[in-house]
Amino acid sequence: MAQRELLAPPAGCRPSPVDSVVERMVSFRSIWPATDGVAVFNRVYLAVTEEIDRRIAAGDFPDRRAAATLDVLFARRYLTAVDAADAGERPPACWRPLFQYRRHPGIHPVQFALAGINAHIGHDLALAVVDTCRVLDCEPAALEGEFDRVGDILTLLEERIREDLMPGPDLLEIADPLTHLLGAWSLDRARDGAWSAARLLWGVRTLPELADEFTERLDTGVGLVGRCLLTPWS
């Protein structure tokens, strides 16, 4: 019940439920140096979350409560990974490469950003959809509109990330293989995979052993992709 109350739509002047996760991400800026790989992803994800919050407030989502619930539960999986790493524990496999290589001098900012997006979309988004279905007592199909709108925002920001964080022309020799590597990863494919994984996990929710096995394999596979994205180039 407490979780349902926390994720209820805003009433009166009560802060948006997204505000709590935004505040945590903002707080990280005073803790991590700007060159930290997790800080690079955090800046990107903060911009995404703030944009989603603005669009929820503007009524751009057909179901405001469903959109806010999905957004908060999605963000919490990233924050949980941060908490685990800060406590000296092992975050999910999908996040480990980013936390392990966060201070590597031979990795470009765009690699850190896309490795974080890969972990969050490839693994966390599917689980967040299932979490949201449980909280709202609905089927994944009921969230498809919100899922697609969130994905559209992510796609626009991914284009901006590639433009802003790719090395300049003076680093063309380094950027050539880097462009090849990053071009092999697609946010659209990751979104499609997350939606399929969410539907599958929802379908096997009454078979916990099978669901756990699939989730573990998804986590491991996404982590492998993240490790490839973080190949050092200098």
Features:
234 residues; mainly alpha; 0% strand; disordered N terminus
What would you note in describing this structure?
The protein is mainly alpha-helical and 234 residues long. It is 71% helix and 0% strand. The chain has 10 helices and no strands. Helix 3 packs across helix 6. The longest helix is centred in the middle third of the chain and has 28 residues, at 109-136. It is globular, with a radius of gyration of 18 Å. The model is unreliable at 1-15 (pLDDT under 50).
Average of per-residue pLDDT values: 86
Whole-angstrom Rg = 18 Å
Based on Cα principal axes, name the global outline: globular
Number of distinct helices: 10
What class would the helix/strand composition place it in?
mainly alpha
| Main sheet characteristics | none
Find the count of extended strands (DSSP E, 2+ residues): 0
N-C termini distance? 51 Å
Low-pLDDT parts are 1-15
Strand content: under 5%
Question: SSE layout and pairings?
Answer:
Layout: H1 2-6, H2 17-28, H3 37-57, H4 64-86, H5 96-100, H6 109-136, H7 144-165, H8 172-183, H9 187-203, H10 208-229
Helix pairs in contact: 2-3, 2-4, 3-4, 3-6, 3-7, 4-6, 6-7, 6-9, 6-10, 7-9
Report a brief summary of the structure.
By secondary structure, the protein is mostly helical. The chain is 71% helix and 0% strand.
